[in-house]
Amino acid sequence: MYSILGDTRPLPPVHPNPQEDEKLFEDTDPFVDPPISVDHGLNFRVGKKTFLNFNLLVLDTCLVTIGERVLTGPNLCIYGATHPMDPAVRRGPEGPEAGKEVHIEDDVWI
Questions:
Q1: Is 83 a catalytic residue?
Q2: Active-site residue among 15, 40, 83, 103?
Q3: pTM for this model (two decimals)
């Protein structure tokens, strides 16, 4: 069996007990209530036991980290991307894009 992303490495073996397998992720994986949208995905990190509510939008031009045990409300937008304020420099979609890292600490409720 292979991943759907074109990776040719085999997937790990299936755990013989699905309930025990699911329990392994309870302490590590965030809970995600879809839909969510992430611009790039390579610059987005989420801590353990974090709840990402529906309609989350993340522009991860730069690193965006969300700590552990964070609770987010619906329709949250996190922008790590920005554009110049001067219209002469901005030049619409042909101008430069910049950004700054966004770091949300542990145990935050947004």
A1: yes
A2: 83
A3: 0.73
